[in-house]
Amino acid sequence: MKPKSGKKKDGTPPAGAPPAEKLPATAPDDAPDARAKSGAPSKKDKKKGGGGGIFKLLMPLLLVLGLAAGSYYVYTKFLSGAGDGLPFLAGNGAPAAEAELPAEPAAEPPPESEEQAPPPEQAQAPEETNSDAPNSESQEGAPVPDAPADDASALQAAPVQPQQVNCEASPQFLVELGLTQDFQISTGEPGVRGLILIGANAENSGAVSRYQHQSWSRAGFLDAFVMARNGDVYFAPSPRTGLGIETPQNQDHIYKLDTNTGELVDFLTLPAAAPSTPEFPFGVVGLAYNCDTNALYVTAITGSTPETQVGRIYHIDLNTGEIAGQIENVDAYGAAVRATGNGSQLLFGSTRDSQIRALDLNADGNFQGEPRTVATLAESQRARSISISNGNEMVVQAVEFNYANADVPEGEQVRLNYDGASDTWNIAP
Question: What is the 3-state secondary structure (H, E, C) of 172-227?
């Protein structure tokens, strides 16, 4: 038998053999793949791409998340103050959460810190302290410590003035007269000596009632007056003449309108350094009332002349009716009591110059320190009366004053605004 040769067999299967399976035709590498037309990746694409389409879709999202995380870190670390920078207070005055300190045991409370500073709203009306509390500083009326300098510079808060309290009460006898609470006391009505009451009738509010008790003209002409918290009204005399008054008298007296009886009585005679004279007739010229201490402050120039200043400022305790203190050789004019962040102060004008001065008062209403100039009017003007509105607005009745002229001209109203930075008052534009 001859050995088989190395020739290839032809593709014809032997007779009776089963038909061979047909293999799929292999397309050339550079031939277009039919599956590529339908969007499916080819084998070559799979090898080159390796699923890169998904990664490309995720890249923008990862980039945005990274930027957001970085911005949040920079803000909380360096801008919001929660890190090592200035303390940060939330809008309502509470410390930011990042700046909170761990709580201390109740038996040993933590010291005050910048994060514990009260919100600006609370600084406007200080809380009333309990006199029974075991805090000697509160009982002595010591001022509350100021906020730390860093905290104040960070907040840039405007000076806040305490609310002015008006404790004046209407006289009780008005009810018996049938007058409403809407009334006026006048000491300058033409042709009227003393005081007169002008008000609406309780039964007919449209009708105007004018009333004068028989005792109200006995003191002669009157001038400045203030109302106390129990309804009593205190009056200063006026050196005007006429209507039966030929020469001014009792210019060193203070008169009181009793809240219950409605009678005008002689309340107190002040000791003067020198008596008034017909040439220079003035005595008591200004009154101011302190609600907190129930005290009356009186300015008097009794005995003063254009060349000599012997006036006084008196502090009268209305609880006892006694003089509690006085300042010598000051010709003060109109006066008012103003509440401050540290207590109260007496503001007063002068019959000698255009300046308005302030004098601090302690918790008992006594004089404290020395007077200081806080406002100046026009050169020829003198502050005859002073009133305070909302703590930071002053209304002054500015007049020209002459020691020898008992008829003081009406003058004009001047408004001034308080400047907390310099603790002074400036004439409003």
Answer: CHHHHHCEEEEEEEECCCCCCCCCEEEEEECCCCCCEEEECCCCCCCCCCEEEEEE
Residue 36 belongs to what H/E stretch? helix 34-37
Closest by CA to 315, choosing from 338, 299, 304, 333, is 299
Query: Would you call 132 exposed, middle or buried from its count of C-beta atoms within 10 A (0-12, 13-18, 19+)?
Result: exposed
Q: Which of 358, 317, 323 is nearest to 337 (CA)?
A: 358
Cα dihedral 55→58→60→65 (10° resolution): -130
Domain with CATH 2.120.10.30 in the chain: 279-429
Calpha distance 408→403 (Å, rounded): 10
Full pLDDT tens readout for the chain, 429 residues: 444 444 444 444 444 444 444 444 444 444 444 444 444 444 444 444 445 566 677 777 778 777 777 766 655 455 444 333 323 222 333 333 333 333 333 344 444 444 443 333 333 333 333 333 333 333 333 333 333 333 333 323 333 333 444 687 889 988 888 776 678 899 998 889 999 998 766 666 566 778 899 999 999 999 999 999 999 999 999 999 998 888 888 999 999 999 999 999 999 999 999 999 999 999 999 999 999 999 999 999 999 999 999 999 999 999 999 999 999 999 999 999 999 888 899 999 999 999 999 999 999 999 999 999 999 999 999 999 999 988 899 999 999 999 999 999 999 999 999 999 999 999 999
Structure tokens at 300: 């008097």
Give the Cα-Cα-Cα angle 350, 353, 357 (nearest 5 degrees): 50
Q: Is 407 helix (H, G, I), strand (E, B) or coil?
A: coil
Residues of 205-232 as b/e, b for ≥16 C-beta within 10 angstroms?
A: eeeebeeebebbbebbbbbbbbbbeebb
Predicted structure pTM score: 0.62
Domain 279-429 fold is Neuraminidase (2.120.10)
Strand partners, 184: 198
Helix (H, G, I), strand (E, B) or coil at 394: strand
CB 255 within 8 A of CB 235: yes
